[in-house]
Records
---
Amino acid sequence: MQPVYTSYMRATRAVIRLGNLHHNIKTLHQHMEAQLGGKAPQMCIAVKADAYGHGIVRCAEIAIGAGANLLGVATVSEGAALREAGIREPILLFSIARKAELEELAELTLSPFVADEAYVRLLDEAAASAGVKLNVHLKVDTGMGRIGCRPEDAPQLASQIQHTKRLRLAGTATHFPVADEDNSQFTREQIDLFLRTVKQIRDAGIDPGLVHAANSGAIIGYPDVWADMVRPGIAVYGYYPSADQQRKLDLRPVMELLSEIVFVKRVAPNTPISYGCTYRTPQETVIATIPAGYGDGFNRLLSSIGRVQIDGKTYPIVGRVCMDQFMVDIGADPQCGVGSTVTLFGPDPAGPNAEELAELCSTIPYDILTSVTARVPRIYLE
Ligand SMILES: *Cc1c(COP(=O)(O)O)cnc(C)c1O
């Protein structure tokens, strides 16, 4: 869904390599198959936040084509976008909806996470008024401190769900805060607690449904909790969840943020560049203006520290990144000029990628990707 003010003629654009998305999903699948020596678990691919900024509908379609069994969203409206596009696969809602959203949730037949009795009752009522049955997934908090019931309350809640008229316990799940570190003791203890909780539900004579926990970090580092289903997000978009994990998979960045030089000017030594005059040219050089800025999601923290790639070579960003433009020093004898394509980040190992930008901005690749704003057109490459 592009807003009306997105221009497809604009220099700044996000090229979405759907081939890489497909490749990454297959790579995760093969990694699990190889390690298990048999059938890989089901996959719920996270397409929340507009598929991490890549475009929810196109990415969901590729995910399904690559074998996704479920799709994961964070809001009812994201679920609505998928249903409007004709997607019929089960959609797992990762967050708790407000009471005012439950009617729509039921009509869209989303499968929500549930974590307390009151919400279970409200959902059962919403399902009844919509005349549908809903699959729900019991979310157990084993250490994330976010939504999820206490492990000791899980069997009772599972039993409550079982006794509703309109809800079916289709899954039991948890989530990891530090699975992006290999060999974390905290994660090991969470896995034990989660698997013990699932066993208690079974011991109470209740089918827990699909047992699932693994985000990208746990798919890469914790095979003992792949269980019935995994929930990858960042890895399918081509990035590791953190710098602390072994790089054992061939993940390829899906998004390439591109722009173009629109203006060049030769300047004298000591010329101030951009707001605040925080940068002055050390010698005579040529300064190129790129029509992209923090209004496009290109972080202002990259001012004077980031780099871009033009015709295979990299050049420094000089001065502050503005809302809609920034400047690059292309040298006194430039080989590029107006019309040259500029890569802000992308899959080329020699150029900047979202991980490098994240490091420079003290954040994570997730933040860099989801920050690309709606005015940047997404151009899909099959
Ligand atoms: C976002 C999310 C995921 C995917 O996490 P990644 O780190 O991107 O793999 C999985 N499960 C839940 C509940 C999430 O919110």
Note: The domain at 18-237 is CATH 3.20.20.10 (TIM Barrel).
---
Amino acid sequence: MQRIIGLIFVLNFLFAEVWAQTDFYRPLVPIKCNSVQKCPKDWPCCSPYGECGAGPICMGGCNPRFSFNETSCAPMPALVPPHNIEYSSAPLSRLDGKEDTAQLVSRGLQHFNKYLISDVQSDAKYMLENIAFTYSGPASIHPQTGDIVLSMPRGSSGCLLATTRYFLYGRSSVRMKTARSRGVISSVVIMSAVGDEIDFEFLGSDLHNVQSTYYYRGELVYNKMVEVPVFSDTNANYHDYEIDWNEHRIHWLVDGEIVRTLYKEDTWDEELEIFKYPQTPMRLEVALWPGGLASNHPGTIEWAGGLIDWDNSPDMIESGKFTALVKSMTVIPYTNKYISAINRCLQRESNIAYDYIMPPGGVFDEMSFALYCGLIPNIGKWSQSGSNIPRNPIQVARLSKVSTLVNTETDFVQNINDLASLPNGTVIYNKTQQTSLSTEIKSSSASTMVQTNPIMKLKRLVSTFCESQ
Ligand SMILES: *[C@@H]1O[C@H](CO)[C@@H](O)[C@H](O)[C@H]1NC(C)=O
Ligand SMILES: *[C@@H]1O[C@H](CO)[C@@H](O)[C@H](O)[C@H]1NC(C)=O
Ligand SMILES: *[C@@H]1O[C@H](CO)[C@@H](O)[C@H](O)[C@H]1NC(C)=O
């Protein structure tokens, strides 16, 4: 996703941006948002940490449930097959620039408060196509190895990398060295805007195990954690951590071995009659954060192994900061129930965005989305929100639509195996009907035959990108 050629261009508009920004995007006195209190009109967007803001807070991670209204959060740039996201480390070269920020941008990483914040459409399109990750906190590139260095100096709140695009099912892989010492947490997590989450959490006080867990819509149920051993010290050695998530099951993998599996069918809630299974579009996030801060909840401090020792921990003595190193990150998206509309869109446009449709009763599932084809979800200024983005629903997938003839402009397909095509190129998902309609078409006229067979295209996509499912 990264293109070196755009470096100078990006730098120019980034620095212009810094001087042009005079507004703040968070109130000086924090405003909380949660299930009983939505954000106010002036600070309409609810962050993943439950605080209201505007501009960049309305982009990645913006929680539509607790924001001012249903258009406050910007639509989420989508990662769909055949595209993927990749960061691979390579040593710095002369082209990478001297500043940390320039090096990061040249490798497709941008600070989250700049990403898609521009009223110049061409700049926004450039960011959408070239920036694969946002970061917050002190991130940098290691000059010799090219690893991304996540740092946590004294008293800071750490560092977070997140993919700019959301995927609904896919395989995420991270090769990294975690941070060490009591109270210091490293995480590899995929997380959705409404709090679905699949995690690896590493305690700096235990470098031979990793905790795997998941959450459904942010419900704090703590009995889902399973601890698994890692073959060698996670701070001294690189290991591969992967989350392979499809609509039926989740695999957690360490160094290529499946260490845990969760099946959707095992998450059925008898009372609510829903699957409490992560099923909303996710971003991959890699983080270094202080679990052992005196101001944290006592339960969090205890879980983190105790308070951080900012004076005597070896990394504080050696370099004045805790660090985690990321050698590579990859996300390969899988297909989902929207594949028919996605594939249709990809024939004209590569930019697709998901947007939440508020479901009745507030139960989000994998069908609670609108799909926008060709939308660039940019916000002009820090004071604005997703409500300023003109949504142009060329293709909208809807939960309630029941039809046997598939209109690929507006419908999603329940099950890829149910698809069939008519001789005139129309896609249907009723095989019984296929026979009678086909006969009908042949007898009436042969003039409407079309050359492309959409079914074949869909199958190709599926076989290429879902082979590990
Ligand atoms: C949401 O709020 C904005 C103001 O922030 C307003 O312009 C917009 O019309 C509202 N949308 C809906 C669907 O109520
Ligand atoms: C193909 O045939 C079906 C069934 O008769 C019809 O509904 C559909 O509109 C036709 N599509 C085209 C492109 O002619
Ligand atoms: C499929 O089409 C047949 C014939 O038109 C019809 O009897 C059947 O109910 C349809 N099935 C579904 C699931 O719509």
Note: DSSP finds eight helices and 25 strands in the chain.
